[in-house]
Amino acid sequence: MMIVDLVDEVDFKERLIALGAPVTQEQSLAQVQSAVLSWLQSYPEQTPFVKDLCTEMQKDNTTVLPEVSTVMAAFG
Length: 76
Known about the structure:
Layout: E1 5-7, H1 9-19, H2 29-42, H3 47-57, E2 62-64, H4 66-74
Parallel strand pairs: 1-2
């Protein structure tokens, strides 16, 4: 049996919230992308943490849903 780590919209939002990003579970991914990009403009010191989060979530044995991957790409 193969076990696959899956990063879905809920996981992604939870991890962003844990970083302190102004995100809620109720927001769409488009709203999350906009909110985080705006947050990073106001608090550029958070950029490395968001990038590290995205890198961590895209490890070799992790499957990221395409919609989530698209938003991650917007963060650099």
